[in-house]
Amino acid sequence: MIDAEVLRLRRLRDIALRTRALGNVLDSVSTVEHSIFARSAFLCWTVARIATGRLRAHPYLSYQQGPSRLRAMTDRVFAALLSWSARRRNRAFTVCGEELQAVAREVDDVRALTWSADLSDALGRMQMQIRRLANEFERGAQIETGGTALPRAIAVARVEPSNSLDGLAAENSWPYLAI
Q1: Which of 106, 73, 142, 100 is nearest to 5 (CA)?
Q2: CA-based R_g, the chain, Å
Q3: Which of 106, 105, 80, 89 is nearest to 23 (CA)?
Q4: Which of 114, 118, 113, 99 is nearest to 43 (CA)?
Q5: In angstroms, rounded to a whole number, what is the distance separating the alpha carbons of residues 38 and 15?
Q6: Which of 22, 103, 125, 141 is the most buried (most CB within 10 A)?
Q7: How many angstroms separate the CA atoms of 100 and 106, rounded?
Q8: How many of the other CB atoms lie within 10 Å of CB of 144?
Q9: Could you report the per-residue pLDDT of 110-167, keeping only the tens digit for each?
Q10: Is 25 within 8 Å of 95 (Cβ atoms)?
Q11: Looking at residue 150, what is its pLDDT?
């Protein structure tokens, strides 16, 4: 593991823990049992554990460090202020969904640039779960803003089978590297 990958994993862990703190705070004020906010907190905790486990496997002790207590306290304060603001403006689903999208972008980044097959596989499973949860947040945000949450119609474009060489003129038809 190289230094750039360690930095990406640390950034992923930090964003996941910050989003987890926000999910926990929003879940504590939510009246619904098995809330979507609790599921987002659990999902972010899983992502943070994957990143932490990969960092702890590094041979250098300085790379194995976890987040500091100051970082955890800062995340809780940030989450409390953000959740207070979101609840006050009736935008809890929107705010938490945006934070979950930030986690999704970091997961995409780490997964795309890692050389480790097991890390890529674990993050791939997390990507699918994050996308499902993000769709639920999007529906909740539509309801929150007064819109209707209709299921999205998946438009499948009809693809006509065509030969890619149809548009080429006779003078441009070169043989493909006949060796």
Answers
A1: 106
A2: 22
A3: 80
A4: 99
A5: 16
A6: 22
A7: 10
A8: 18
A9: 888 888 888 889 999 999 999 999 999 999 888 877 765 444 443 334 444 455 555 5
A10: no
A11: 46
**Is the pLDDT score of 4 beyond 50?**
yes
Q: Contact 67/11 with Cβ under 8 angstroms?
A: no
Identity (one letter) of the amino acid at 55? L
Report whether 98 contacts 118 (CB < 8 A).
Answer: no
Q: Which of 4-8, 29-33, 147-151 has the lowest mean pLDDT?
A: 147-151
- Does 178 score more than 80 pLDDT? no
118: tokens are 């097991």
Q: Which residues contact 51 (CB under 8 A, 6 or more apart)?
A: 9, 10, 12, 13, 16, 110
Closest CA to 52 of 30, 71, 39, 36: 71
pLDDT tens digits, one per residue of 60-85: 656 667 677 888 899 899 999 998 98
- Write the DSSP string, 32-75: STT-HHHHHHHHHHHHHHHHHHHHHTSSSGGGG----HHHHHHH
Neighbours of 86 (CB within 10 A): 21
